[in-house]
Design brief:
The protein has seven helices and no strands. The protein has about 230 residues and is mainly α. Helix 1 runs parallel beside helix 3, helix 4 packs across helix 5 and helix 5 packs parallel to helix 7.
């Protein structure tokens, strides 16, 4: 899948620090796997920084060898690169890296849109996967299908908005159900705190809420697991 050039600026969320989950992925398996595949010392900080700056150069992002200087899009690109380095024989990971180099911002939005789609409709072949190879047996040796930045932007906003609305609806439904349960418990209790004959006391269950998208707005980028 080839991605057309985009004129987007920096990431919508100019977050220059990895989240806790991203740091766990980075130091827990992405960097160690790349080191194992390339016979690097996992404790070699100079090599780790060199890989970071090589990635930024490949995607034509502002050069930096420090992960703390990276935004949401750049962190995703680095993780895609490390997945490729850790398993260079993988067709999927190779294709991801090729697409990411074409336009890493558009690639990240496509990935985000797929995450929202999975959260909404369950696991399956999302658009990034459906358009991956276009019937080709290999990611090398020819162009892959193109993703249009404007199409991806619209799809990302649509899926994120739907996901946000669904999460709000679920939270509201949980609160209503919790209130009904408490009301039913109150009716079973007689004045003075005594339960009606034959009624067993039940502890009140606090209302629970469904997990919401890890974003404060439909257009923002979220922490999608690797």
């Amino acid at each position: 899948m080839r991605v057309r050039s985009s004129s987007c600026g920096r990431s919508e969320l100019n977050n220059r620090y990895m989240t806790t989950q991203e740091r766990k992925a980075y130091f827990g398996h992405l960097w160690p796997d790349a080191c194992l595949a390339n016979e690097w010392d996992v404790k070699d900080d100079a090599q780790r920084r060199a890989v970071t700056i090589a990635c930024m150069r490949a995607i034509r992002a502002p050069l930096s060898d420090s992960t703390s200087a990276l935004g949401r899009d750049e962190i995703t690109a680095l993780f895609v690169y490390l997945r490729h380095l850790g398993d260079p024989a993988s067709l999927e990971k190779s294709a991801d890296w090729v697409s990411c180099q074409d336009d890493y911002k558009t690639f990240n939005r496509a990935r985000q849109a797929d995450w929202h789609e999975r959260e909404l409709y369950g696991p399956g072949k999302n658009k990034l996967a459906r358009n991956r190879f276009g019937g080709r047996a290999t990611a090398a040796g020819g162009p892959l299908e193109t993703l249009d930045p404007e199409e991806v932007r619209k799809r990302h906003l649509t899926m994120a908005s739907r996901h946000q609305k669904k999460s709000k609806d679920l939270r509201a439904r949980k609160l209503v159900d919790g209130g009904r349960e408490q009301l039913s418990l109150d009716k079973e209790t007689q004045p003075g705190g005594q339960h009606a004959p034959g009624v067993t006391a039940k502890p009140a269950t606090p209302p629970t809420t469904a997990p919401a998208p890890r974003s404060t707005g439909a257009g923002e980028l979220v922490d999608v697991p690797f």
